[in-house]
Amino acid sequence: MKRQIPLIIVLTLGIFFFIQFFVPSQISTNIYQTTLQWTLVISAFAIVLAIGSLVNHHMLKIKRRKPHWWNSIVTLVALVVMALLGIFGRVKGLEPLGELYRKLFHYVQSPMDQAMFAILAFYMASAAYRAFRARSQEAALLLISGFIVMLGVIPFGSMIWSKIPDIAEWIMMVPNMAAKRGILFGVGLGMTATSLKIILGIERSWLGGGGK
Amino acid sequence: MIFSTNPWVWIAAILTLGIFSFLYKENPFYRFAEHLFVGISAGYGVAIYWNNAIVPNLYVPVFQQHNYWFIIPGLIGLMFFFRFSSKAGWLILIPLAVLLGTGSGMGLAPTFQTDILKQMQSAIGDATNLQLGGWGLVWGLVTFVGVLTTLSYFFFSREQKGALKISANIGIWFIMIGFGASFGNTVMGRIALLIGRVQFLLTDWIHVIK
């Protein structure tokens, strides 16, 4: 019973919305739009689980006085403050809270987000050193195409040779496109097969208990 | 060197330096910035979900438009909280089933159409479109061969030997060129972000660049 009900729901909704795609009536489109709204609401509640897990992790760290536990207080305070400012900042009469929320986004969240990704450039450079060493034909191809594409998007590339941006564009449009299309085929087939397996109840790992 | 008088610019600059300090080694300054970033980002996510999903799709329809049908997804969503119940924990499978069923059903045909049929159509179209003429047609054919050989590399139903091995080997060349190009693009994206941060520090914070 505990497994049958969810499986029946998946089967019914899966088949219904698969058929819905081929029915071009207004009613069908309305049902699709409404269900999209409904799924947005349902999935929004799922974030509660994610936040619950984060809070739980940091509360445990504080409770057990683990190393650097005071940083967990920073995380929890930041989480609560940002969420409350974002939620109440749109309420009439509380606009200053909304302004503070925007300031925190522009001067705290966004700069740290960019800085976090920017430092990855250094680690990617060291990873590239290991990956790009031309020890085989394939590694040499990776090295050459990566190098040309990087040179192609900076002014220095065209200073070396005016054709480099054109070659970089050719790499993106021909061999890169071919590989991406081939991979997309595989992804598409994989997604289709997985969707079918979920709808038909063959894939049951989401039920927990190892799919028994 | 004239420092900015805007306290928000100072906060942004100090936190940026805090993140960059990790390049030297892990330190308390970085750990503080990292934990602050996690908290702020999670809080931002909650606010975004609240304002973009809950308010327009649940609060407004139910409390302002009096469309009570929208209580149903709210109730189904609330079932996620059964995660914290030891007896009724299995009820969390209901909202999961609704999301998986609708997601799989809605995605099945469009995925097949966009990732398989459209890609196939474009690959064959580029290789046979005589209007492209000359090099356009040649590159279309090269792309088509690249798609086929890339696919053959991922074909594991038969042992890769003979013609299939040759095709798979050509496929791996295309894949490597593709990965190299993606790597190059990603690195340049990160470099652009780095330039952006350094520009912020030098322009907005210490006003060295005007």
Describe the structure.
Chain A has 212 residues and is mainly alpha-helical. In chain A, 80% of the residues lie in helices and 0% in strands. Chain A contains eight helices and no strands. In chain A, helix 2 packs antiparallel against helix 3, helix 5 packs across helix 7 and helix 7 runs parallel beside helix 8. The radius of gyration of chain A is 25 Å and the shape is extended. Chain A starts with a helix and ends in a 13-residue tail after the last helix. The model of chain A has no long low-confidence stretch (mean pLDDT 90). With 210 residues, chain B is mainly α. Chain B is extended. The longest helix of chain B is centred in the C-terminal third of the chain and has 43 residues. In chain B, helix 1 runs antiparallel to helix 6 and helix 4 packs across helix 5. Chain B has a domain of 82 residues. The model of chain B has no long low-confidence stretch (mean pLDDT 91). Chain B is built from six helices and no strands. At the A-B interface, helix 1, helix 2, helix 3, helix 4 and helix 5 of A face helix 1, helix 2, helix 3, helix 4 and helix 5 of B.
